[in-house]
Amino acid sequence: MEGSVELPIAGLDGCELSLRVDWGIWGAELLRRARRQLPKVGGVLHLSLGDAKLLPQQSLREALLRRSPALRGDEGRDEGRWEEELRRTTCVFTYSCTNLLSAWSGLQGRETEDGLEGITDLRYEKNCIVSLLEDGLPASLTYLKFGDEFDQCLQGITLPSGLQTLELGEEFRRSMQGVTLPGLRSLSFGKRFNQSLESMALLNLRSLSFGHCFNQSLEGVALPSLQHLNFGDAFNQPLQKVDLPSLQSLKFGRQFNRSLKGVELPNLQNLTFGHCFSQSLQGVELPMGLESLSFGQIESLASQEDVALEPSDIAWPQGLRDLKGANFTAQELALPSGLQNLSFGRGFNQPLQSIALPALQSLTLGFGFDQSLTGVSFPETLRSLTLGHSFNQALHGAVWPASLRILAIGDSFNQAMQGVTLPEGLQDLIFGRSFNQPLQMRLPRDLKSLEFHGYNQDLALVWPEQLQSLRLGNCFNQSLTGLPQRLQTLELGNEFNQSLQGTTWPFGLEHLQFGTSFNQRLQEAALPSSLRSLKLGRFFNQNLQGVTFSGALQSLTFSVHFDQRLQGVKWPPNLQSLTFGHCFDQSFQGVVLPSGLQQLKFGHRFNQSLQGVLLPSNLQSLSFGNFFNQPLQEVSLPDGLQSLTFGVRFNQPLQEVALPSGLQRLELGDDFNQSLQGIALSNLRTVCGGRVSVAVASGK
């Protein structure tokens, strides 16, 4: 049968289409042509001849023969009879909720009858199959991400007009000339891309990011709406002839070192330079609306040719609020009066006594600063002060502003604190890795958080009544006698491994975290009844039978080495989150988990059968590690489960598994290679697997 025929297509909602098609047209092509005339998008399209679904790999002629076998033998002899039969056999298009499982199968390169319409987010983490692009992406797509292996030409590919975000991976290096991106708002390139964008019109683009290798001029590129522009390390092109009228944020990479004289960026608010920028700012008209300015390793605002640079030579925008990375000399620092946050760079090591600091709220003295603070006039508005890595000066002569709330002292500091008076309003105090001096001082009255990194001294101190958080760093390994009684958070570092027997816990302690070395019995610990979260470190591997957990405990986390039997453990009744580490691989047969548990996560090695295991009825999230590969046909998954995650090695059939109807996210590992045919999950929003991810908007 040759020639063409007028094909009427009726919609269930009363809408009708009419297409003139060849008898030999394939179902897939007919679907594509029909979809272009659809009154709406957002569902999977099906075409049916009578009650038989039109298959993608079947021609219209074959479909009609299947519907009306009596036509066989009349091919080429009675064309009118064929057309009459076609008119009597209604062709109907219908919508259904997007079948993400089928869409995911299609993205894997398998045959699937369903299209991708309704998909809003698509992440393809490996090299995309060519047919996915050639057959056309769904009109519903708004977010598209290709992974690091993707390096296919996009010329001639029709991208959806509603696409708003496009992310190209590390290996993509193809030309973008001729690629149409009409409504795109965000575009990012990976490491290898280094193609010219000249003559491209990206009229609606708001955000543009380049990777490491890009070093092409942007002259001639139309970017009238661009607000955010990020360059990678290699970019070093002049900007004097680049038109960026709407740009608000500009970030350069490591190699950029071009003069900014004559560059016009009228709406710029944030400007960041990289490591190599060393151009003079003398005579540069910085945008008057600039609010944040960050330098890399610049050591002077003057060029080598400048004989002398006066403070008045730099036209600081009066609206400048944040200045970061400054390594300038004191003579160059005529800072704007409205500056709120000042951060000096690694090389700054000038006395502060001669610098007129404006009404700052935050001051950071960088890596190399090591000057006395005696005689320094800190602004009365200062709320946060950070003394960098090299600072190791006595604090006795410092006069602190009463407004100070945060004081962070760097890793080299190890001076005695006896006789040092800190402002009573200080709330957060942080010491670095070297500090290990007795705290023979009166701690500030309002102190709420105290953090150490190298401290290993007795805790028998007079603690402020307001102290809520105590972080004892990696060197601490002392008895816990003398803990502050109003403490809410206690974090113990990697060296701590003391018995907890007889410990008097703060009556309101809510969060307790142990570090790497802790491996003591919990049966004698008498954990506080107020405890809400407990995190045990890397080497903890003690049995839990006989442990009395707090009734208020909501989160329990085990780390790498824990691998103990759980039968007979009395779990806290209000536990909501339970996480196991890398080594755990124990049977759950006979384990009674709390009915209110919402999140259960297993580590890499867990590979035990769950047949006969009673999972909590309120479980919402279940996650398995990389080794899990057990059949689930006889497993009873809770009806309320919303997220189900499998690791790399899972490769079990799911067709006979009673997956909960409310499941919203299904994550399958790289080894998964099973059919998903016939699985229907109407509430599914995201499917991931084999480095492919598809999603629909929550309102679809």
From TrEMBL:
Species of provenance: Effrenium voratum
UniProt-recorded name of the protein: Uncharacterized protein
InterPro entries: FNIP, LRR_dom_sf, STK_FNIP-Repeat
PANTHER family (alphabetical): FNIP REPEAT-CONTAINING PROTEIN
Pfam families attached to this UniProt entry: FNIP
